[in-house]
Amino acid sequence: MEGVRPGGGAPASGPGSGSGSGSGSFPSLFPPGLHGIYGECRRLYPDQPNPLQVTAILKYWLGGPDPLDYVSMYRNLGNPALNVPEHWHYVSFGLSDLYGDNRVHEFTGTDGPSGFGFELTFRLKRETGESAPPTWPAELMQGLARYVFQSENTFCSGDHVSWHSPLDNSESRIQHMLLTEDPQMQPVQTPFGVVTFLQIVGVCTEELHAAQQWNGQGILELLRTVPVAGGPWLITDMRRGETIFEIDPHLQERVDKGIETDGSNLSGVSAKCAWDDLSRPPEDDEDSRSICIGTQPRRLSGKDTEQIRETLRRGLEINSKPVLPPINAQRQNGLNLDRAPSRKDSLESESSAAIIPHELIRTRQLESVHLKFNQESGALIPLCLRGRLLHGRHFTYKSITGDTAITFVSTGVEGAFATEEHPYAAHGPWLQILLTEEFVERMLEDLEDLNSPEEFKLPKEYSWPEKKLKVSILPDAVFDNPLH
């Protein structure tokens, strides 16, 4: 991306062209999808019609790597009465449909919708003496946008993203992100649909873990109550050296009570995982019931892969929105991102016929299974058991290194093809494991050392012979290089 400051007289070069929403019309050459977005920005910043921008040198719809067309940066003087400090407000342009499907189709040949219906924003506390906004937040937003365009997973309020590195490449403790509705920018109507604004909020590792164990919205509400940790406008301060739990120890009690009462609303993650069917010898390659030979994922055809994705999308669908979970996935320019199929406590599909793949993928009952996870994925098993299954819910691991999914279900989950009589069942590469409450409690005791990753030595194996279940925690290299 490169920095630009669009000229006010150039009809299609930036917010300097045309007038604000409701006070005039934009030039006809100006992309129609931008009208409402710029109008909302001008409502908040009427004195800044020509903000500093950074832009993609080669547009995404012309083959460039950066999905965002540009990021505009506004200076907000804050509000001392509300404990809101002076800060920079970044607004992205490009995730929503700004040009219309026809223009995007002309250059990309895609058949689906070109926009995702939201734009990203970010509020960064202004450093003393800082006269120009730093541009690293624009790169951060581009990383998130790449993930959205490549995975076609959308964000929603309450989602969280593991970054595992200071957001500004400094020594800051702010190394992860939560997402929420922008507290000032309202949804706008464009010719191509409604555009909402989701704000990125930088958080510490301890705050991210609390969001995982409980829920993102609950942690966001706590951040709003602590001025130095975000305040009412959730402003990120990269120099913040304390977590909200160090600032106010009573907040940890609220989180603990919330976890006990509500459980976790994290229903799944993209992960480094695999599974083996131990019911038959691994050399039996004639049946689709085993999708791993050793650690080598069996590759599915494009048709099979799409059917599995549709099964996960429809069979685990929530009535509202998808969620972006947090664990370490393939790294893209510093980005670790994952998704969860749902928050719904049912595996019912809208139509059973809609998710049944062709005859090569059929449901099978298995006698014995071996589950494999990397350390970060394995560390979430206690959350899966305590925060989800003990609350009558389900939890899914979706592999990022192969077309594999593992769903843990409790006896109260409807629509599962795993049953108490046959607790291990596979639908092609999708494995379901039904665990009774009694077995969950036992597993939590046996897996207690997963809560202390600093003392963990790999590989690590857990086994319950009478249940014919084995779990292995393996180094990342096993999943990064299946032939290792």
Automatic annotation (TrEMBL):
UniProt region (Disordered), positions on chain: 1-25, 323-349
Superkingdom, taxonomy of origin: Eukaryota
Residue span, Suppressor of fused C-terminal domain: 253-473
Compartmental location: Cytoplasm; Nucleus
Biased composition, class Gly residues, residue ranges: 1-23
Pfam families named among the record's database cross-references: SUFU (PF05076), SUFU_C (PF12470)
Family to which the UniProt record says this protein belongs: Belongs to the SUFU family.
Gene, per the UniProt record: Sufu
GO biological process, one term: signal transduction
Keyword annotations from UniProtKB, A to Z: Acetylation, Cytoplasm, Developmental protein, Isopeptide bond, Nucleus, Phosphoprotein, Ubl conjugation
Protein's name according to its UniProt entry: Suppressor of fused homolog
GO cellular component: cilium; cytosol; nucleus
Organism: Rhadina sibilatrix
Residue ranges annotated for the Suppressor of fused-like domain, each copy included: 64-240
